[in-house]
Amino acid sequence: MEANEKKKENEAPAAEETKTSYVAKNAKGNSDTITRNYFDNLVFKQRIIGGSTPDLKTTMFGREISSPIMPGPIGFPSEKYNVEMCIAGAAKRLDTIMWAGMVSPDLVQTGVGMVEITKPISDFDEFCKRLEKAKAKGCVAIGTDCIHAFGLDGYPDRSRNGEVTMRCLSFEDVKTMVKIAGDTPLVMKGILSVEDALLCKEAGVSAIVLSHHHGIYPFAVPPIMVLPEIRAAVGKDMTILVDCMIKDGYDAMKALALGADGVLVARALMKPVNTAGEEGVFDFFNEINDQLRGIMARCGISDMQHMTPDVIARV
After folding, report:
1. Is there a contact between 125 and 147 (Cβ–Cβ < 8 Å)?
2. Do the beta carbons of residue 135 and residue 114 sit within 8 Å?
3. What average pLDDT does the segment 225-249 reach?
């Protein structure tokens, strides 16, 4: 009887017992708070003489976009708006790329450039089929949230309704994903170490997103903190993006100056899209792009090709 009551090794507990909730906002070790504090301790040096109005254009996944700041994947309901359709409409008007999870055909048909992020479910065959479907839709890139490997209790993570178990991807899994993607760029979201970044590069991954996924586990290193060492390790030929706690153009500038090719803004979108739909998203991105352009001008940086870390200091 005693043996039957013990959990089997590596067996996930029942859905109602699974501890996968985010660390409480004010709890010790809250990764969002740690990341926010790190951002706020970074400041800019002014290089004003001989400056000019900067150009924000950059190239992402083979297409030119108007700014390196892109709407990241979010999933929350709104009583007033179809959230993803609002973001897609705004992204198309802004001439940028939208990131989303398991996009619908309707989103693709808007003509906006899409990156689809698929959760790494434990049924690897089904997961691969979902990647193939994303590729067939014509997404500009496809990928997964590899950070969804484990819950807070160390057992495999589950979906929020507890019905689907996630998978810790192996190196061979990643190589299989690269083969499926083919000529479509493959993105791994949730990288926070040089070791994982180098494994992704070795496997042939096109881009990585440095992210702790809104503080999904405690005491996660701020993505922007490990950014410089990861950039140095993988070199310039791998696309690096950053998310988590990026709320304005100043946060974006800090990440870009320290080596990111682009940034994703997700949770900061919730209020504008829920308040004013597509127009709210459109106005929000115009505002933060103005902030980015303004601080680039103050730092003497004319375009994305001339970003440099020496404009950043820490207080």
Report:
1. no
2. no
3. 97
